Amino acid sequence: MRVVSWLARRVGAAAILLWIVATVIFIAIRMIPGDPAEAIMGGPGSQASAEALEAAREQYHLNEPLLVQYALYLGQLITGDLGTSYAQQRPVAQIMAEMLPATLQLTLISLVIAWLIAFLMAAVAARSNRIGQAMGTVIEVVAAAVPHFWLGAMLIIIFSTWLGWLPSVDTGTVQGIILPALTLAIPLSGFLAQLMRDSLVTAMSSPFALAARARGASEGQVFFRHGFRHAALPALNLTGWAVATSISGAVVVEEVFARPGLGRSLLGAVLSRDMPMVTGIALFSALIYMVVMLIVEAIEAIINPAAARGDDA
Amino acid sequence: MSRTAKILATLFVGLVVTAALFPSLLAPGDPLAVKPSEAFQAPSLQYPFGTDESGRNVYTRVVHGTADSLTIGLAATALGMGIAILLGVITAFGPRWIDSVILRLLEVLYAIPALLMALLIIAFTGPGTTPAIIAVGLSTAPGYSRLIRTHLRTLVNSEMFDAATVLGHSRWHKVRNHLIPNTLSTLLALITLGIGQAVIWASALSFLGLGTPPPAPEWGAMLANGRTYLHFAWWLTVFPGAAIVTIAAGATLLGRTATRSRT
Amino acid sequence: MNTPAVEIENLSVTFPGPNKTRIEAVKNVSLTLTPGKALGIVGESGSGKSVTARSLLGLTSGNVTADTLNILGTDATRLTEKQWREIRGNKVAMILQDALNSLDPLRPIHREIADALPGSRKQRKQAAVEALYSVEMPEPALRAEQRSPQLSGGMRQRALIAQAMIGSPSVVVADEATTALDTRLTRMVLDQLAQLKDQGIALAMISHDLAQIAQVADDIIVMRHGEIVESGPTEQLLSNPQHDYTKQLLAAIPSGVARFAPLSQVATTEAGTFENFRHPADMRKLTDTLAIAVHGLSKTFGDHAAVSDVSFSVPQGSTLGLVGESGSGKTTTARMILGLERPDTGSVSIFGQHFAPAKESDRRDLRDQLGAIYQDPLASFDPRYTTSQILINALSGGTTSRSRHYHKRALELLDLVELDSSLLSRSPRELSGGQRQRLAIARALAPKPDILVLDEPVSALDVSVQATVLDLLDRLQLETGTSYLFITHDLAVVEHMSDQIAVMTHGNLVETGTAQQIIHEPSHPYTQQLIAAAPDWGPRSRR
Asked: What is the ipTM of this complex?
């Protein structure tokens, strides 16, 4: 019963959030000076034909009163109708469905890689001496400060141009995804490692770690029984943010490695000011963020049931 | 802060400020001067960072680009921080219902990744330097708002404030004696961190062709240009990017050290 | 059974200090632990007692040397980390202080207790439940499945004892196992420790509290600055202390010490001997005027009633001790009296004038009559201020005037709380705990208040420092006639400091009376339990 009501509350909150995002976009399109139909078709520079503008007016019910437009717009969104892409003349939902797997694959793989790298960095730095700690900090900060577009280019120069080990563009093979995934993963791992190390150091010097040593646990056991969980918790907490950042990053990475995907579609849509497409992708990434947050909360509840229930002594 | 860290920080800030205000001291010459006969020269003593497709000196361009990239970063941070301080103050001191409304709103903005939000804004405004500044400023504001709100809340609920209340100090005295001075240092650290991030985001937009257009020596734009020649003129990409990483990482380390040394 | 379990001779532990120096945390300490007996190691912060205790398990990070370090027949001077691990938990176990974090909040209790045991998961869990049962944990099977944040303080402390006992150790080290616990919980732990002795275990009990150690220990070692200053059988050490420091510690214990009798001792400069600190005589003439009058105060947070219908009053020039365990609502009551929390119902008046609930601007004039002192003074100082800035800020009502007048007043205040004027330019972070609390008192006295509200003002201090601060408060009251509302969980302190005592539990005020009445003839069952649980402190009468 508890799980059902928790889920209902969460889904309700997510729905409200999506509704607000949709509303903000609706208002923003109407706030652009000039003809909203023109804005949807890509602004005054697009020189859309009179028929196209009329079609846009028809599709977005621009001839109706504003409130009716809004109701119809929401009605379409609820039925999953995201409109038709101006630039590609195809339903936005269809384009997104085609592009989604590639982006999803890229983000998931790089999330896993980022976690692994971050955890290794944190574990090594946490157990080294003061100089090692300072170096760890610098490595983490630099990793977190490297822009995706430059890192991607560096990896291409080293592994593709000089060493010739890996392809610099998407080939649809396993080798093709290594460099893009690393590009996305390394800056993220820098962020995560900083967080993990802080909580790892705290956990390893806490009274419960001392208690574990006092009952005969080895350093390795203390690390895996206690340190690991405490390090994972704050990083897990940030997973929603991490996924969101990865989607941002995917825009750049897909562009650098010429990979088809949602990110590149979004960039194209922004450049051609293809509003239906932009709206669709924005709503979708908000949806992903919320789904991820939901999953994270569920996992946290498993690791730390007391905190999830809001109990305290 | 240790002595070494202080020296390094001073050197870093000095170098960046010189490059931004007096680029000719470090790199005499015109960043836009074209010399087709010298195109695609690899790094050498004469051209430490090599030359680009029009024979422009990349070193000169990187140094002179500091001002552009930094201005965008500063302006975007100023905008983001300005909004964040406003929202932070309203949420921390305003009535409870305003606090919860704004918090909900920030949560919505959090659900949209920063670069995505920047892209959304540019989708409405069209590309350019000013849109890039607005986009980066607006998309970083939600995060800062939360930090500032938490900071102010902690101060107002602190025993330090309670002690001043019990001594009968007026609201204004508490704000002037404790709140503002104790917030300034935190803000400064946040701003330092923010500039680093803003430089990255702004150059990402330029790289995607949505920010400052070429041939201005803006680092992101230089990178976008260098990408075309990536396979045989690596220096066009390596050096502008290294400049971005230096600024961003330097600012982050500076901000972090400042935050930690106070606690 | 009389072969010693642990024999230590000339144990020294050093840590690397700044600039390649070595810090000697423990110097030439010798001790013996005998099966069925308890050794108490008492000392204040920095005495090296915890480091000594941990070297029994090889858990110090410092450099350990000893002529003899014999643990259950094993020469432990040259054990490898792996050999130490076989000793820990199985032969020598440790009971930690119940900081919330002594049990990993992310793991179920049964795993925190039994994860070092051999056997299948199911067997280990069974063993954990049995261990919990033997320390009288209520509903052991249910509790074994829970995590530490779901347990009460008492249950956590029981779990920590079960954790130490599950490997059937022959030696148990209890490191500050009773520190920061409420009175009744302390009694429970002390009883459990005494039981361990009966089971034939060699017990080492480490604490800063001599009164608690005396309840369990057969022999006592007094440590200071890493060295043993005195040791001997408990009876003898308490009744006939030889070393001045031991005498000082004994004198500092407030239980049973008459009101206004000094606790601290000061060195007379020439002879280097100690003599009791002297107070001016108690010339107070208590009148009918009420400094604080509280009527029907209530406060609810969410659905938790923190304070319900509390009424009491503090006559001018006297001290009302407000005593209660954690969560009793005593701090919330103090905050409402200070106007920091708005009461749901009820009112507070100060010298007959209405004070709370009220608009801040309406009562600001009354604030000069009211000062407050907290447990952690550091948190109440602006971290950027020096001592002089803190005082001048308080004296000038929040302006930052640099006038000479305020400087002079600041010096007077420092003098009043017996602090040296050289501290004026220091940051409070550079001061010792006792100095900080004196500075907090000086600041509270700046507007010359007639009332001080003191919320656990000495709980974070070492016993001997606590004694000097309590003496200072006594002297100030005698000299200035200030009224005190003294809030604490410590019965001994409240008994010594109060004219009247009010007892709170679960947000209710259950009993009010003179200190004499409450301590010797408590009428409410809760008060009776509380008094019964307090350490039975005999030696005072013997002295």
From this structure: 0.80
